[in-house]
Automatic annotation (TrEMBL):
It comes from Streptomyces glaucescens. SUPFAM superfamilies: Adenine nucleotide alpha hydrolases-like (SSF52402). This is UspA domain-containing protein. InterPro entries: Rossmann-like_a/b/a_fold (IPR014729), Universal_stress_UspA (IPR006015), UspA (IPR006016). PANTHER family: STRESS RESPONSE PROTEIN NHAX, UNIVERSAL STRESS PROTEIN UP12. Belongs to the universal stress protein A family. Transmembrane segments: none annotated. Residues 17-153 form the UspA domain. It comes from the Bacteria.
Length: 153
C-alpha cells in the first residue's frame, strides 16, 4: 500500500516578522536602512529602526552638550526616514517604527533586538579604521549568534 502526501506551498508565512536596522546617520547605516526596508517590504515585516544614543561621560564632564547633540541626531534620522517613506508612498509601503536606546551601540542593539523580538538584524559596515583591530559592532553582533545578521557595506 502506498501513502500519498499532499504538499502545499505556503506563501508569505515564513521569514522575519520584525527586521531591526541600526542607524547612526553614517552612509553605511543609511544603506543598511534602505536594504532593511526592502527586506521588510518583501516579507511584509515590521521595520524597527533603532538609534543607540551613545553615553559619553567624558564629554559631559567637560561641559559638552552630549544629550542635546544625540537628540538632534535622532530627530534628524526620524525626519530622513519620514521623508524617504513619503517619497515611496503608493509605490510600496513599509510599516516602520523608530526607537531610541541609550548606551554602547552593541549592547543597545542587543537590548533592542531582544525587546522588539527581532527576527533579523541589519547594520552597516563600520567606517572606522580601528574597528578592524578591535572588532566592529557588526562583527560582535554576528559573534553573538542570536539572530541572522546582515552587514551592508
Amino acid at each position: 500500500m502506498t501513502e500519498q502526501h499532499s504538499y502545499r506551498f505556503e506563501r508569505g508565512t515564513d521569514g522575519p516578522k520584525v527586521v531591526l536596522v541600526g542607524v547612526d546617520g553614517s552612509d553605511s547605516s543609511l544603506r543598511a536602512a534602505a536594504y532593511a526596508s526592502g527586506l521588510a517590504r518583501r516579507q511584509r515585516a515590521l521595520l524597527a529602526v533603532v538609534y543607540v544614543q551613545p553615553v559619553q561621560a567624558a564629554g559631559a564632564a567637560l561641559g559638552a552638550p552630549v544629550a542635546v547633540t544625540t537628540d538632534e541626531i535622532a530627530e534628524d534620522l526620524v525626519a530622513q526616514i519620514r521623508e524617504a517613506a513619503e517619497r515611496v508612498k503608493g509605490i510600496f509601503e513599509v510599516r516602520w517604527e523608530f526607537h531610541t536606546f541609550h548606551g554602547d551601540p552593541f549592547y543597545g542593539l542587543v537590548k533592542a533586538a531582544d525587546e522588539l523580538k527581532a527576527d533579523a538584524v541589519v547594520v552597516g559596515a563600520s567606517e572606522q579604521a580601528g574597528h578592524r583591530i578591535v572588532g566592529s559592532v557588526a562583527v560582535r553582533l554576528v559573534k553573538a549568534g542570536r539572530w541572522p545578521v546582515t552587514v551592508v557595506p
